[in-house]
Write a structure and sequence with these properties.
The complex is a heterodimer of chains A (479) and B (440). Chain A has 479 residues and is of the alpha+beta class. Chain A folds into five domains: 87 residues, Uridine Diphospho-n-acetylenolpyruvylglucosamine Reductase, domain 2 (2-Layer Sandwich), CATH 3.30.43; 118 residues, Uridine Diphospho-n-acetylenolpyruvylglucosamine Reductase, domain 3; 110 residues, Alpha-Beta Plaits, CATH 3.30.70; 91 residues, Alpha-Beta Plaits (2-Layer Sandwich), CATH 3.30.70.2740; 47 residues, no CATH class. Helices cover 37% and strands 19% of the residues of chain A. A seven-stranded antiparallel beta sheet of chain A has the order 15-12-14-13-17-18-16, with helices on both faces. Chain A has a five-stranded antiparallel beta sheet with strand order 5-6-10-8-9. In chain A, strands 1-2-4-3 form a four-stranded mixed beta sheet, covered by helices on one side. Chain B has 440 residues and is of the alpha+beta class. Chain B contains 17 helices and 21 strands. In chain B, β19 and β20 form a beta hairpin. In chain B, α1 runs antiparallel to α3. Chain B is globular and about 70 Å long. Classes of the chains: A alpha+beta (479), B alpha+beta (440). The interface between A and B is large, with 96 and 86 residues.
């Protein structure tokens, strides 16, 4: 790797003001919203696809590790560079290239902020469905890399369900296209494969996304429970009556009190837990569902079910939900967010386990999560300056994720594997299963120039995963 | 008709892997399993992932061409295989890995038929949204490999939206997995997306997990008829811009309507809209759709009509063996221009055409056949393909034997070809799976 040696070449590609390499500048790019840090050697700001192509060609030729970066709001270290590597930052590729109402599509550059797209098409009655809590800052390029979700993915799906085409720069610098504006494309679904590949296959420079029509009616309910357990059991009771809410979020008592002190969202201070439930669709259907959901909640021992009466009330409840992470900044110097997933029916059990983990490691753990999807976000409070406590946090985190795996779940629902959970992939996949994924990555990024040491653990020798008899046959065949 | 020659020792090795009772060498039975006129040298029915992996390993070492098979409902799709050394049935892969109705998910083996799966979850008030043609024979593995779902695509999304986990054996014999049994999961590459629609050329799918949906408690179908395709597409646009969210929205051309069992079809362009909900919700549909509605269908007739629409891709070639059947995926705004091109190509080549399409997502099934005297069908299809817009995808689901060799040239996709080849090479470097039948 010889990054300093190619800085002049980079400046020729993008202009002198579009390359940073001073140590004080690098400090701004050494972290994301998670806990890991690593300082890059330079940051480059391309303005178009051709420049990205030339940067990639230069980096590949010189074996310089590269990572794409949007707003740095990720929680798994996906956008953090290898030490001394090159960051391609997309803040100057932030244009909405096309809004195609007839086809219900938009084509955007990767640096477009998630919420900005919905605001841009709002007057047309359209919006972009994936809505991560960080949607005011996070970029669509980052959403694509991590296959991001959000509260409303319960009904509408995650990012991959809303991307139909991508323009991609491969590590070689070649510019290619997967899919387009059609809902599906013939051949291998490389668009679907690319979304969520965590920057290890290529770098996207233009994304074709679906625009959805806003629902006629939205009902937002706040169901208040005395205990976490009652709220947890209500989640599968709602789906059991044949209703799929647009969003079904849960906040435990400790978390909602912390949020309330921060932004006065209207959460009840004495509750054990609340469910924030949103229903959307045709007016008649939503009204019927609101009644049915309220009845289910009351049967499951809800103390009360409130319905937001105005758009302002609704917005305030969602502000409270989406500001949860920010609210924690008032009460703890650091926090660690996990992203485990369990089958819906396992939510009561996993919340109980998280409570036991908190006691075992003497930590405060709040819960605010996408209950309808079984996607947990335990928030573990700690002080980064306390090395011993940090070790405890990592151990507690592994403990929770192992429980998720043991009950049939996963280690990440929407944040990505990145750096932090890479080693836990071996608990979820066999060596042979990982080997298949590694061979796919290597088909595009064999030298690991792009986002090295992310998502997939180090490969083991193929011979280790083959049975003895198979090895014998291979030897016999001279393979 | 060609028959591959397979040395007896291959069958012997395969018997050791799968058991003697599950290696089919009877010429009469193999004859029945021919694909586009090519008879397999041997057919096998492995019972486990391990057996499939062992067969693949053996096939790699010996350079055999393996063709996967489920219920044999879509084997006419794709190019004619040069030979079939081993036909591998997935019918014995019928485990249930997980099923909890409360989770609205199920994980099952690839050998389950769609009818069995629908019946199992239906008993718990749930719906499996993969409405394959000929569900009594179509299997889960085949459904995923071909991506051939029906009208429910409009309201419930495609397989890529509700297949949440997949297990498979790659062409080079590795046991792989993607996703899992939870509805939200981004750990590792999305192998589901890669294998759905890959036509059995990357791996054999051995099992999959799906999201399920609450089954609709009542439905009603509102049919609107129009004199022209343009009016029908305008109506589609009005529905898509309305607050309505129907479970199905299907365009049926006049000739396609003649294949449907109910209603005064066969003369007009019809749009069948299927809605679900309470009486109040269905009444709202009636109000919103207003005077456009020609008639409504419910009960048994409704079931029969939708079954006929689902089976269009099967019924049309049965009725017109000389037809070409093309599957198209288009941006929404391209549907009408493509229908106009179809009309023009058909008129100038003395062809008749029939169209059934999930038009709310831009998917069309187009059948073309000579109106009277033998016509140059191949040239007409080539001309039609040339006029397709940039982002269109096209594939041939059925065509007469004499046009088979041209069928590959008719396929079209906006996706980068060399990247697809790289994927193929990464999972099936020796090209043992469905060799020559798909893209390369």
């Amino acid at each position: 790797m010889n990054l300093p040696g190619v800085l002049d070449d980079l400046r020729k590609i993008v202009g002198r003001d579009a390359v940073l390499d001073r140590p004080e500048d690098m400090m701004l790019y050494e972290y994301d919203a998670g806990v890991r840090r690593s300082t890059p050697g330079a940051v480059v700001f391309p303005q178009n696809t051709q420049q990205v192509s030339e940067i990639m060609r230069l980096a590949s030729t010189n074996h310089i590790p590269v990572v794409g970066r949007g707003a740095g709001t990720g929680l798994s270290g996906g956008a953090i560079s290898q030490a001394g590597g090159l960051v391609i930052a997309f803040s100057r590729m932030n244009r909405i290239l096309e809004v195609d109402v007839e086809n219900a599509r938009a084509v955007v550059q990767p640096g477009v902020v998630n919420l900005q797209l919905s605001e841009h098409v709002s007057h047309l009655g359209l919006y972009f469905a994936p809505d991560p809590s960080s949607q005011k800052a996070c970029t669509i390029g980052g959403n694509v890399a991590e296959n991001s979700g959000g509260p409303h993915t319960l009904l509408h799906g995650v990012t991959v369900n809303h991307v139909t085409g991508v323009e991609v720069v491969l590590p070689s610098g070649e510019i290619v296209h997967f899919g387009g504006k059609a809902a599906e494309s013939y051949g291998y679904d490389l668009t679907g494969f690319f979304v969520g590949s965590e920057g290890t296959v290529g770098i996207t420079t233009a994304i074709t996304v679906k625009l959805l029509r806003k629902a006629e009616q939205v009902a937002t309910l706040l169901a208040v429970f005395e205990s976490v357990d009652d709220a947890a059991r209500t989640v599968s009771a709602i789906t059991a009556v044949g209703i799929t809410p647009a969003a079904l979020e849960m906040l435990d008592g400790w978390t909602l009190r912390t949020i309330e002190a921060f932004c006065h969202a209207g959460f009840p201070l004495d509750a054990g837990a609340v469910l924030l439930i949103e229903l959307e669709g045709l007016r008649e259907a939503v009204e019927e569902q609101a009644v049915a959901v309220s009845e289910v909640c009351m049967r499951q021992k809800a103390r009360e079910v409130r319905r937001a009466k105005t758009e302002d009330e609704r917005a305030l409840l969602w502000k409270g939900r989406k500001m949860a992470f920010a609210a924690l900044g008032r009460v703890s110097p650091s926090y660690y967010t996990q992203d485990g997933v369990v089958p819906r029916s396992q939510i009561p059990g996993v919340l109980q386990h998280i409570g036991e983990v908190a006691k075992k490691y003497d930590l405060i753990i709040g819960n605010v999560f996408h209950a309808g999807d079984g996607n947990l976000h335990p928030l573990i409070l700690f002080d980064m300056r306390n090395a011993e406590q940090y070790k405890m946090v990592l151990a507690a985190s592994r403990d929770i994720l192992q429980y998720c795996i043991d009950v049939g779940g996963s280690i990440t629902g929407e944040h990505g594997v990145g750096m932090e959970k890479r080693d836990m992939m071996r608990q979820l996949f066999t060596d042979e299963e990982l080997d298949v994924m590694i061979s796919l990555r290597n088909a595009f990024n064999g030298d690991e120039v792009l986002n090295p040491e992310k998502m997939l653990p180090m490969p083991r020798m193929c011979r280790e995963i083959m049975g003895a008899s198979q090895n014998a046959v291979l030897a016999q065949e001279g393979m | 008709m060609t028959t591959a020659t397979t040395p007896a020792r291959f069958a012997r090795e395969l018997r050791e892997i799968c058991g003697a009772g599950y290696v089919i060498e009877d010429p009469a039975k193999l004859e029945q399993a021919q694909i586009l006129g090519v008879t397999p040298a041997v057919a096998i029915e492995p019972a486990s992932v391990e057996e499939v992996a062992a067969v693949f390993f053996f096939a790699n070492v010996n350079g055999l061409n393996v063709v996967p098979a489920g219920g044999f409902t879509q084997q006419q799709t794709g190019n004619t295989p040069d030979k079939i050394d081993v036909l591998l049935y997935t019918t014995r892969l019928t485990d249930v890995e997980h099923y909890d109705p409360g989770d609205l998910t199920i994980g099952i083996g690839a050998g389950w038929t769609i009818a069995q799966l629908s019946s199992k979850v239906g008993a718990d008030g749930l719906l499996f949204a993969g409405d394959a043609p000929i569900p009594e024979r179509a299997t889960v593995g085949g459904l995923l490999a071909t991506g051939m779902t029906g009208p429910l695509r409009h309201g419930y999304g495609g397989l890529r939206d509700y297949c949440i986990g997949i297990k498979f054996v790659t062409g080079d014999g590795r046991k792989g997995k993607g996703g899992g049994r939870v509805v939200k999961n981004v750990a590792g590459f999305d192998m589901m997306k890669l294998l759905i629609g890959s036509q059995g050329t990357l791996a054999i799918i051995t099992g999959a997990s799906f999201k399920l949906f609450p089954a609709p408690r009542q439905t009603r179908t509102f049919v609107a008829e129009f004199a022209t395709a343009a009016e029908a597409v305008r109506y589609r646009n009005a529905v898509l811009s309305s607050p309505l969210s129907p479970m199905c929205l299907e365009l049926v051309s006049p000739q396609a309507g003649a294949l449907l069992p109910a209603g005064p079809a066969g003369k007009a362009w019809a749009v069948h809209l299927r809605a679900t909900g309470s009486d109040a919700v269905l009444a709202r549909y009636r109000t919103e759709l207003g005077a456009a509605i020609s008639f409504t269908i419910d009960g048994h007739n409704e079931h029969e009509v939708w079954r006929a629409i689902e089976d269009f891709s099967n019924t049309l070639p049965e009725r017109n063996p000389g037809s070409v059947l093309i599957s198209l995926s288009l941006p929404l705004a391209e549907v009408l221009p493509v229908l106009n091109e179809l009309e023009s190509v058909a008129a100038s080549n003395e062809l008749t055409y029939a169209v059934v399409g999930t038009v709310g997502v831009g998917r069309l099934l187009v059948g073309l056949w000579p109106t009277g005297a033998p016509a140059n069908l191949g040239a007409a299809v080539s001309a039609f393909r040339e006029r397709l817009p940039r982002d269109a995808s096209a594939s041939i689901l059925h065509c007469p034997k004499e046009l088979r060799r041209q069928a590959a040239a008719w396929a079209k996709t906006p996706t980068h070809s060399d990247s697809m080849k790289a994927i193929k090479h990464a999972l099936d470097a020796k090209d043992i799976l469905n060799r020559g039948r798909f893209l390369f």
